[in-house]
Design a protein that fits this description.
By secondary structure, the chain is an alpha+beta fold. The chain is built from 2 helices and 5 strands; from the N terminus they run βββαββα. A hairpin with a 2-residue loop joins strand 4 and strand 5.
């Protein structure tokens, strides 16, 4: 399970960012509050990660704060919401 990433922002959009960590680019889905708090492309970043592993995909969700991650985890735990 990936808990955080520490690397350089390669690209960013309101839905996702790409973080390079030792030559590997990770696509990380982010919320708008996290996106607006991000530094510019090329800047170093450390971001909290929630990893979702399913039969046909692996998704990484990034959060700028522990509170935002906790709210996300509580929402996806609710049946028919997550």
């Amino acid at each position: 399970m990936i808990a955080f990433l520490d690397g350089k922002i390669i690209s960013k959009s309101p839905l996702a960012i790409v973080i390079e960590v030792q030559g590997v680019g990770y696509l990380v889905h982010v919320s708008l509050p996290t996106f607006y708090g991000l530094p510019e492309i090329g800047a170093k970043i450390s971001i909290r990660i929630y990893t979702v592993v399913r039969e046909d995909e692996i998704k990484l969700f990034g959060f700028s704060s522990e509170l935002e991650q906790i709210v996300f985890e509580n929402l996806i735990a609710i049946s028919k919401v997550g």
